[in-house]
Amino acid sequence: MPVTIARPRSLRGEIIAPGDKSVSHRAIMFNALSNTDTAHVTNFSPGADCTSTVEIMRSLGVEITRKDGENGAGDSLTVKGVGLNGLQEPSGILDAGNSGTTTRLMSGILAGRDIMTILTGDDSLSSRPMGRVVKPLTAMGAEISGRANDTLAPLVFHGGSLTGTNYEMPVASAQLKSCLLLAGLRADGVTTLTQPAESRDHTERMFSAMGVNLQKNGLDLVLEPSELETVDVEVPGDISSAAFWMVAAICHPDAELLIRNVGINPTRAGIITALQMMNADLTLIDERDVAGEPVADVLVKTSQLKGIELDGDIVPLLIDEIPVIAVAAAIADGETVIRDAEELRVKESDRIAASISWLNGAGVEAEGTPDGMILAGGNTIGGGQFQSYDDHRLAMSLGVAGLISSEPITVLDPDVAGISYPSFWKIIEEFGGLVG
Question: Terminus of the chain with fewer CB atoms < 10 Å: N or C?
Fold first, then answer.
C-alpha cells in the first residue's frame, strides 16, 4: 500500500539505530561455525535480510533461538555452534531472499563441503553478479554451478576439496573478501588476499575476537586455517540506517536529531566524512568501543550544505548511502559529482538510473554517468509519485526526500523498507511526516 510523506514543521528528538546488518549476519554465521559453546547476540537487526541468514543456518542444523526486542532495541538470539565441519545437509533449497550478503558469505561457508546445497533468492537477488565469488572459490577447488555460466543464482554446491589461494581482488568488496576468508578457514594451506582499496572490516574484527590466525599487512590479508571460538556479540547500530536520519536532519529547515548507538567503524563511516565535507552540522558524542566495534551517538542539525566531489577510496566506504547522499546533494549549494560508483549498477536495482529517474521527476537537475551521477545543486525537491523498484534504500531515500520536499511525495512500494529497517515508516509517522 503506498505511503505519502509531507514535510513536518520540525524534526526534533532521539532515534535508536537498528542493529547493524553486516555485523548481525556475521555474528550468526561465525558463531554457528564456532566450537560447541552457545553465543548470545543482542541488538540483532530485525530486517528480512538478517532473518534469511538465521533461517539458512537453522536449515543447516544450527540451533538458534530468537526473542523480539522491545522499546526500539534489536532482537536477542542464542546460537549453539556446530564447529567448522558440523553443518548438516539441508532437506530443501536455501533461500537468501533479497540478501546479497547472505548469498556471498554463505557461498564461502558452503564451498568444498561433503554435502550438496542449493542457494537461491528472490528475482532481484537472482539477477545480481555471483561470478565474482564463484570464480575464486572454484580456483580453490570448490565444485559450484549456477545459471548464466555459473554467474547467477541459484548456485549449487557439489563439494570439492579446498586449497589456500593467493588472490588479487578485482574490486574492493567486503562480501567477496569475507566469502574467501570463510572458505580459507577450512582450506589446505594459507589464503592471501590483496585488496585494491579498503572495504568494511567487520569480518577481520570478529575473526580476531574469535581467535582466527589472520594478519593484515597494508591492504593484504593473510589467513591460516583456524578454528573459531564462540563469542558474545552486542551489535552496534547500523550506520547505513542512521544515514537516512542524518540527511533528513541536515536538510530540514528546523531540525535537531540525536541518533544513539551508531557504529562508526572507519571502513563504514564514509557517510560521516561525506556529510562533513558538505558542511553538515554533525557531531559525534560519547565515542566508545562495543565488542570490538567503535560506537558513538550522532547529533545532527539543520545545515547550509555545499556540493562536493566523491570518488576514489572513499566510495567503497559509503556505497550503500549514495542514494540518500543524492537527496542532500540535490539541495546543496553547488554541483556534486560522484564517480567510481559503478557497483551501484548491480545492487538491488540499478541505483544510479533509479535515483536519477525520481530526482528528475521531482524537478531536480541531475544526470547519471556510467560510474556515478552529477547533481547541479540548489534545487527545491518537488512532489510526485515514485517507485523504489523493490530497493529498500531507494524507498527510504524517497521517504527522506518527502520530509524536506516542497510538496508531498508518495512511495508506491514502501514495504520493501522492511528488508533492512522495518520501523522506518513508523518513525516518520511519529515525526508527523506520514500523511497518507
Answer: N
